[in-house]
Amino acid sequence: SGPLDREAAMHTQAPHSADLSNLWMPFTANRRFKAHPRMLAAARGMYYTAADGHQVLDGTSGLWCVNAGHGRQPIIDAISRQAAHLDYAPSFQIGHEDSFLAASEVAALMPDGLDRVFFTNSGSESVDTALKIALAYHRARGEGQRTRLIGRERGYHGVGFGGISVGGIAPNRKAFSAVLLPGVDHLPHTHDLARNAFSRGQPAWGGEPFADALESLVALHDASTIAAVIVEPLAGSTGVLVPPRGYLERLRAITQKHGILLIFDEVITGFGRLGAATGSAFFGVTPDLITLAKGISNAAVPAGAVAVSRGVHDAILDAGAGGIEFFHGYTYSAHPLATAAIRATLGVYRDEDLFARARALSAPFEEAAHALKGRRHVIDIRNLGLVAGIELAPREGAPGARAAEAFGKCFDRGVLVRYTGDTLAISPPLIIGEDEIGRIFETLADVLATVD
Ligand code: PLP
Q: What does the sequence similarity comment in the record state about its family (predicted)?
């Protein structure tokens, strides 16, 4: 047994001795959690060890981020070496070699032409960075009036003011609605339960009509005022909404026609989730910018990036007149621990051919997910690559309660799933085996039978 196992054993003897009152937990019903805390103590491979000692199969890659599984030795070693070797280096006006190597290695995984890389520390920062690049690009080309940003209903783009403005989740916006970015509009979301329920992979209906809503927004606002459209190729956080066939292709055609930049938020779809390096590669649609985070570092160190087309990058640099071209950056952009984690993570993906593994597993994963059809409460099942959403009929007067109950019961039975509204989301590490895929969905089937 390794050090992690020993650490886990230690934790099992004393679940926790912490005072829970000081920590204000993010996106959590704090009072409810603190009354019945569920705590994780250690992680290795496909499993968490809960604080009470029971093993929990990680059906969600943490928060869609630990794509190579937990506690991977090459990543641990790279971070440890780097911490001892170069703990921190600024990236403003000075560089460190690993940051350039990491950028080249990320660029090599991006679609052709998107090979300029700006480092951030999170998905939210990547989104705000991409929106600012879009505005700077148009201004650099003498089209500074192109300031309008278009997101999508049910889009999740993190929690910066830019991200919640283009995002389409009402509760994330409500308390701050007076100060959201001006000049933002939204496309309709692409979820159509009546026509597309229980689609396997990409739904057949809706690609053109949903994408053509962009033509209506262009007609309304005029193309000359619109800077960029941002969408998740597959919307993860709002319940696994798979793009209908033809939708992304058409968004690309319309944005191109009108000189509007297209941003794919690939914080979830990047790094193998769909069985390819990016959603862009999976769908065969190349945007102008791609936002990345999560799987870029296997979540071992917070990290994110924006991959930018040469055209967009060069336009901004050309306008720079020899000075700083883009007044933007973070103290921790290209933090040495992050670039070390990124390089080691990409090495694991490559050495273990994990994107191909995800692609090969997507068929048995789809079978296992759709085997839940006909189970109590299940009104839709959606899947693509190694991600699935199981939508439950809401309990009368208590939307979300069924999925929350199923989540708790799965955890107690040793399987971690995620819930958002009444949808359960499954997105396991790409190292998962077929037996473990079976266990996730069989546990869900058992649990659903016990949910009112
Ligand atoms: N964009 C997408 C598509 C996401 O799924 C997320 C997080 O789930 C974010 C942005 C925000 O990332 P972070 O929480 O790292 O800021």
A: Belongs to the class-III pyridoxal-phosphate-dependent aminotransferase family.
